[in-house]
Amino acid sequence: MFRNRSYTRVRCLSALILALFAVATPKAYGQEEPGAPRVITAAKHDTASQPLRSLQPTVSLAAGFAKKPYRPNPHATVNLAPPKRDPLVQRATQPPTPKTAPSKTAPSPTKKQVQVAIGKNFDGIGADFQGPGGTFQVRSAPPDTNGAVGLTEFVQWVNTDLAVFDKNTGAVRLGPIPGNTLWQGFGGNCEQNNDGDPIVQYDKIANRWIVAQFSVENGFSQCVAISTSPDATGTYHRYEFQYENFDDYPKMGVWPDGYYISFNMFQGQNFVGSKVCAYEREAMLAGQPARQQCFQLGDQFFGLLPADLDGGSSALSGQGGTQGPAAPPPGTPNFFLALGAQPNTLDLWTFHVDWSSPASSSFGVGPNHTPNQTIPVAAFSFACNGSGASCIPQPGNPKPELLDTLGERLMYRLAYRKFADHESLLATHSVDTGLANSQTGIRWYELRRQGGAAFAVFQAGTYAPGTNHRWMGSIAMDKAGNIVTGYSVSGAVFPGLRFAVRQPNDPSGTMTTEKTLFNGTGAQHCIVGPGGSCPPGCSEPDGTCKLTRWGDYSSLSPDPVDDCTLWFTSEYEKQTGSFNWKTRIASFRVQSCKP
């Protein structure tokens, strides 16, 4: 997240404003009853009178550089045991070929490479990136890289700026522009502040863009804009939703009855629990006043992800506004998933929203909103011990800093897909494999259920071939059932980008092919200058000089047109230095998936 002032001053000012505001309007954030949601109307909304492409950016970035504060899961280190070898670890890029009986006529079995076609592969926003909006200057770390693909465009947003690309050519149609350009003329905090933690989504049912970032300098808000067409450079309906505490690390999922979002809520540096909300999707698509329904959880729950609906646009929506065959059954609640409050578990909640009778809405079980399911999984250890410490090595001389992993939370997105005979949820996080040098790997899960029964682990694995470290993953599935996870890789190689694939007939819990998207050629490193001078933004409170923040999240999502092509965007390094990260946008298709 990027801010225009010092974090300490902002937090003190915000606390004072909120205290005065609470005295004047005790129900400013809605009435909350035990077990019932708070129902809160958007503090502001309008319909943009001008297309985004015609707005002149108002630069609201302070000079200098900023590191996003790291707010870890405070429970990740409770009763932490030394890492043990991960029971699911996959050490080879391919599993061993099954042994078969000798045959005089049949040839010996061989390992079969998954055929993958890499399509577009081009630089996104980062150091020296240029577009119609000018040349981008890196001012913050990490970039919080994310994006989504639509009918003809790919929209990418990093902490301070966004850009729109032609997905067929990679040409920059718009940007880079500061994210708050979207709220020009809207007024208030959304227009004034450009604070980051952005999310870009594409509503594949309605063929609309949903873009959001928070505003945390003058109170705490989520700024949300919904496009009025599939054109990301066109006009938007705009909304500001307010909260009583610091709404950190927002993550959003698209569902037929709402846009669902989660936050980690903080008072100062104190974690007070996750908050989950549903935005009134139907009203927002029409540009009407919209409500949110929110539930506040206890502080034992952290890092929830809402389910995000995957599938081709033609399969998600039927004629006359009906739901298509790939949409969840009518009335299906949204699902939220997090690493469990108990060791070696996943916690799963259902969020049922009722817009006509909000008192009938529910989240989880009982007034304390405990999980609907606690799902046992194979034992795992948090990457970097889950403490917020850094542990990912990089090559170079002098030895550069170690990078962080956010290993105490699930990574964006929680991908939902419905097939004819089952529903599937995909999730991933970074783990310490227990191997030499605390090697970090990608732990992934496919949860399934049939006929509305409970979800259970269908398969899971930990991908860690060779000796390099893999982390900051994002996972998705195409319509043919091929599972793909994209991630960062570092160790003996500079930080770069790869992805791994499994086909439906591959051995359970294994990835059978790894592909390189882009090789990094530099390390993220604060190089101390003459006289021991530390580069701007690299100084730590303890007097050290380093820049360990990496990624925060990445994004992998299916193309709504063919539902076979997957699009991935994340961070890499081209040249050793500080505040000079770059990003990549790439598409690829497992060729067994037929558009």
Write the layout of secondary structure elements.
Blueprint: H1 7-24, E1 38-41, E2 44-47, E3 66-67, E4 89-90, E5 116-123, E6 130-131, E7 134-135, E8 140-141, E9 146-149, E10 153-157, E11 161-166, E12 172-178, H2 188-192, E13 199-203, E14 208-215, E15 220-227, E16 236-243, E17 246-255, E18 258-267, E19 270-279, H3 281-285, E20 291-296, E21 305-309, H4 313-316, E22 334-339, E23 345-352, E24 362-363, E25 373-376, E26 414-418, E27 423-432, E28 440-449, E29 456-463, E30 469-477, E31 483-490, E32 496-502, E33 513-518, E34 555-558, E35 566-572, E36 582-590
Parallel strand pairs: 3-8, 4-29, 21-26
Antiparallel strand pairs: 1-20, 2-16, 5-36, 6-7, 9-10, 10-11, 11-12, 13-14, 14-15, 15-16, 17-18, 18-19, 19-20, 21-22, 22-23, 23-24, 23-25, 26-27, 27-28, 28-29, 30-31, 31-32, 32-33, 34-35, 35-36
Describe, in plain words, how this protein is organized in 3D.
There is one protein chain. This protein is mostly beta strands. The chain is 5% helix and 37% strand. It contains 4 helices and 36 strands. It has helices spanning 7-24, 188-192, 281-285, 313-316, and strands spanning 38-41, 44-47, 66-67, 89-90, 116-123, 130-131, 134-135, 140-141, 146-149, 153-157, 161-166, 172-178, 199-203, 208-215, 220-227, 236-243, 246-255, 258-267, 270-279, 291-296, 305-309, 334-339, 345-352, 362-363, 373-376, 414-418, 423-432, 440-449, 456-463, 469-477, 483-490, 496-502, 513-518, 555-558, 566-572, 582-590. The strands form 8 sheets. Strands 4, 21, 22, 23, 24, 25, 26, 27, 28 and 29 form a 10-stranded mixed beta sheet that branches. It has a 5-stranded antiparallel beta sheet with strand order 1-20-19-18-17. Strand 13 (199-203) and strand 14 form a beta hairpin. The longest helix is centred in the first third of the chain and has 18 residues, at 7-24.
